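Researcher: I'd like a structural prediction for the single chain below. Treat it as a standalone chain; there are no partners to consider.
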Amino acid sequence: MRKLIVFNQVSLDGYFTDAKGDMSWAHKQDPEWLAFIDENAQGGGEALFGRKTYELMASYWPTPLAMQQAPVVAKAMNEMPKVVFSKTLKKADWNNTRLVKRGLAAEVRKMKNEDGPDIVIMGSGSIVSQLAQEGLIDEYQIVVNPIVLGEGRTLFEGVKKKFGLNLTKTRTFKNGNVLMTYEPARQMTIEKKVATIDGYLQEQPPAIRKRLKEIRSIVRSLAPGATEKISYRMPAFFLNGYLVYFAAFKNHIGFYPGPGAVAAFRDEIRKYKSAKGSIQFPHDSPLPVSLIKKIVKYRVKENLLGLKKKE
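Model: Treating it as a single chain, here is the predicted structure.
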């Protein structure tokens, strides 16, 4: 099951926008924070918005100014799949965006049960409060900013029933921001938290574990300097940015090299089910080792080229 994550910035007095709907007070330009934002953006996922946040994002990220000011984030935001929930929007023109008019909770339940990367809510306070009440949010990543706004909007307006959260990790930044990650209290008792790739592999059936280990070995051999970790509940490798993700599902292994690699190898992956940025390798078919090697080599070169362009 896909994970539904909230990532939002709030003021010290608990608002994610000021009284005028402005969020620019959360924009920081120091190197540590920008590096964190770039890494987050390259982590993949599917974005979920309400109308107001969607219109704000869609008016900025596709512009030349966004590409100039934050090229890594702009590229990720424009390429990633997006869903906007709105009863009043007539169309959603931003690249790779799907408009859903009704049935928020039912649609999100459906999305969570589909294969694919995790789902991330940014902004969208009304969406957060509705899905929180439905018990559909799996993780809250809240960045507290050292500023007092006095008034504005909170993420949980309209929530009628109290619910507890457990703090799972924190990170303090030199600019005064503090990232706090929470999970619903009930989730901690029903879901074992996997912190390492070894732990993830150990939970898989032996036959699936063997296939996952083979993919891991391929990536390690072709990208020896890569960092490996669990990200969005999946094994992930990073080298000059996000490199690849992979994960076990009921009937297949999901391999996530990003949209550039999927497009580059579209003829060779034609026999497999794929989407923008992902490929499915069925459990009942041999693992395409040669193809995986070529894709990993491509991703190493792609990331290195991107790094040189930024220099």
